[in-house]
Amino acid sequence: MNEPTTHQTTPLVVHQPTPIIPTAVHAAPTVPIQPGHVPPVASVVLPDGRVVTGYAINPAQPEPVVAKPVVSRAAVNVALGGVGFLGVCGGLLLLTTFITALTALITQLITLTAVIFGGWIAAQVLGANRPQGGTTVHIRKAVIKRNHFHG
């Protein structure tokens, strides 16, 4: 069959696997355990007519989402009241500061006016003692005739 032909067929060779002989394994003694609950066996008929029988496996449940704790109305009211109280305290502090500054300004203006007016009075009093070159008129002794004073 070593002759070349136009159409050659190769013989079919079947390989058989060699079984692996396991080493001696000593099995642990089995203790029968009664299951707490035996799940029901389910049978499903496939579209091609085959029947598959087995235990139903529950689908994996996702982790439950931890719900946020509900904030009570009382807590919200207390928080808003605290914010409002702080706002009022800040406003009163600003108002007190404004009133204090206004009082200081008014005090300084009164002091400035007193100093200026007191200085003017002092200048008048001290300036009256100087000799003057004018004529002194005594109104009680004067006789008024035709809009002229005669003494």
Net shape: rod-shaped
Low-confidence stretches: none
Tally of DSSP helical segments: 1
Measured between the Cα atoms of the first and last residue, the distance is 180 Å
Category from helices, strands and their pairing:
alpha+beta
Largest sheet: 2 strands, antiparallel
Radius of gyration of CA atoms, rounded to a whole number? 61 Å
Q: Helix and strand succession? A: EEHEE
Number of E strands: 4
Q: Strand order across the biggest sheet?
A: 1-2
Strand content: 5-15%
User: Which percent bin holds the helix content?
Assistant: 25-40%
- Calculate the mean pLDDT score and round it: 77
Describe this structure in words.
It is built from one helix and four strands, in the order E-E-H-E-E. The chain is an alpha+beta fold and 151 residues long. Strands 1-2 form a two-stranded antiparallel sheet. A two-stranded antiparallel sheet has the order 3-4. Strand 3 and strand 4 form a beta hairpin. The radius of gyration is 61 Å and the shape is rod-shaped. The model has no long low-confidence stretch (mean pLDDT 77).
Give the structure's gist in a few sentences.
With 151 residues, this protein is of the alpha+beta class. The chain has one helix at 73-127, and strands at residues 41-45, 51-55, 143-145, 148-150.
Any chance you could write out the topology, listing elements then pairs?
Blueprint: E1 41-45, E2 51-55, H1 73-127, E3 143-145, E4 148-150
Antiparallel strand pairs: 1-2, 3-4
